[in-house]
Design brief:
Length: 504
């Protein structure tokens, strides 16, 4: 068999495996007729267990951290080297598609699987994380998993409750985790060299360009505002047109300005009036007040700010001309996240190698990369999805495009991870000689990385029987550099990742 034929066969096999695994994960849902898997639910823990098995089969050491992320590490040539972090999320919105988030985790496993089959180790380690919460579906707060890894989890999040009145703290306890150990999920900046994420585009640009893959230049910043036009209600039949102070007419005029001015600005800026509420809301009454929302996004903060200022100025001008008042209150803001230029170049080169040319584009949706980029160089690879449909059961990718994505992603990961490591393991790390350890959830077992801290072990409710001997200690950012070592209590030859009622 020629190299070309063999590579094509490997590509098809990897893509087929990813598609099949995505189907298996889609079956882990709180409802049978629509995919819904929220943070720290039984279905989320089952997904962690299943993904952990696939990581382990790909030659990785596997652990679940203190905020419920499932993590795996494929060691480099030199143990304890910094890692290239790959990942995405395993939670979903309600009535979701099966590729948003999950595709990135599964493709990353294929990258490691390929290296493992070749018996190949790189200068840097490779780690994969299946983040526990990106969507914010359950608690209304987003990026819980990635904020745990960066050590930027606000303490106030613990008291946030879901619609059933269950707090984040209680949900952690219910899942076998300890709210007091949240900080232990944080990774030291030196542990990670770079972050790469593969994700479906969630938009139509790649499809319109006839390309399978694209490179993300930035994740859009966003502003959200509650706006209000206030005029004067009056009888629909008795108030002449020239004497009206119609709040809805003013809002309608402004909405057209929002659309037109945003189009004129270009630069991948987008603006949306998503809600509209009229008062008093009667068919025979001139609207005296209109409340509406504005969502405005763009890949760079300065043009975004300039557009917002122009739109608000137009709203004030419209209100003044019509003898109304206008007010706006910003309730949400997130800065644009620029992807690392060097990593973009590496991804672009890899994409061009597999599809002939590369395209850069912004991401209009948020991702875990927003949080991770605050701490480490980050970049993203987009995969075309049918019609740009996402957050919907019709969400779809082709096996052929997935195969190309795995190839390009592998090229990029190898190039980044095979660069010379910037540091060697320090004197403070320890490694157990045993292949595998079996212990209870109360025993502290650890694989010491250069800056050790209290370990995160599998919670007994999730992984009750055994665990790998090499479990990375992930310190809070400010954790003191001290060595803590625990002895092995017993030996086992394999790891069993089991959860009652889960699919094996």
């Amino acid at each position: 068999m020629s190299d070309t034929v063999r590579q094509q066969a490997e590509r098809e096999a990897a893509a087929s495996r990813v598609m099949a695994r995505a189907d298996r994960l889609a079956a882990l849902s709180e409802t049978a007729d629509a995919l819904t898997r929220v943070y720290l639910s039984p279905e989320h823990l089952q997904a962690n267990q299943l993904v952990g098995q696939w990581m382990q089969a790909a030659g990785m050491m596997v652990w679940q951290d203190s905020v419920g992320n499932i993590c795996g590490r494929y060691e480099g040539v030199q143990e304890g080297a910094p890692a290239v972090l790959l990942g995405s999320h395993l939670d979903t919105v309600r009535n979701a598609g099966r590729y948003d988030g999950m595709l990135g985790v599964l493709a990353a496993i294929e990258v490691v699987q390929r290296l493992h089959q070749q018996g190949r180790r790189l200068a840097k380690a490779i780690e994969i994380v299946g983040f526990g919460d990106e969507e914010g579906t359950r608690f209304g707060i987003t990026l819980l998993g990635s904020r745990g890894v960066t050590g930027t989890w606000p303490e106030s999040w613990l008291s946030q409750c879901d619609t059933d009145g269950v707090s984040v703290a209680q949900a952690l306890v219910n899942a076998g985790l300890d709210p007091a150990r949240i900080a232990h999920a944080a990774r030291h900046p030196r542990d990670i060299a770079a972050y790469l994420e593969l994700h479906i585009e969630q938009g139509p640009c790649l499809e319109q360009a006839g390309l399978a893959l694209g490179v993300v230049e930035a994740i859009n910043g966003a502003r959200r505002l509650n706006c209000r036009f206030t005029g004067e209600a009056g009888h629909a039949g008795t108030v002449p047109m020239l004497h009206r102070k119609d709040a809805l007419a003013a809002a309608a005029e402004w909405m057209m300005q929002v659309e037109n001015l945003t189009r004129q600005r270009g630069g991948n800026l987008v603006a949306t009036v998503g809600t509209l509420r009229c008062a008093p809301g009667a068919v025979n009454v001139i609207p005296g007040e209109v409340q509406l929302t504005l969502d405005i996004r763009g890949p760079q903060d300065a043009p975004l700010t300039a557009l917002l200022e122009e739109l608000l100025g137009q709203a004030q001008a419209i209100a003044g001309r019509r003898q109304l008042s206008f007010a706006a209150e910003e309730y949400y803001r997130i800065a644009a996240t620029a992807c690392d230029s060097h990593l973009q170049a590496v991804l672009s080169e890899a994409v061009a190698a597999v599809q002939g040319r590369s395209l850069t584009l912004p991401s209009g949706a948020g991702h875990d990369a927003i949080a991770i980029a605050e701490r480490w160089p980050s970049a993203m690879l987009f995969v075309r999805c049918l019609g740009g449909v996402s957050h919907h059961p019709a969400e779809s990718v082709t096996a052929a495009n997935v195969g190309l994505a795995i190839d390009a992603f592998s090229r990029a990961v190898v190039k980044v991870a095979d660069a010379c490591s910037r540091r060697s393991p320090g004197p403070g790390w320890r490694l157990f000689s045993a292949s595998w350890l079996t212990t209870s959830a109360t025993e502290v077992m650890a694989w010491m990385l250069p800056i050790p801290a209290p370990t995160e072990i599998y919670p007994s409710s999730v992984f009750p029987s055994s665990m790998p001997s090499r479990i990375p200690r992930r310190p809070p950012i400010a954790w003191a550099s001290s060595v803590l070592e625990a002895p092995a209590r017993s030996m086992a030859t394999s790891v069993s990742l089991s959860l009652p009622g889960s699919a094996r």
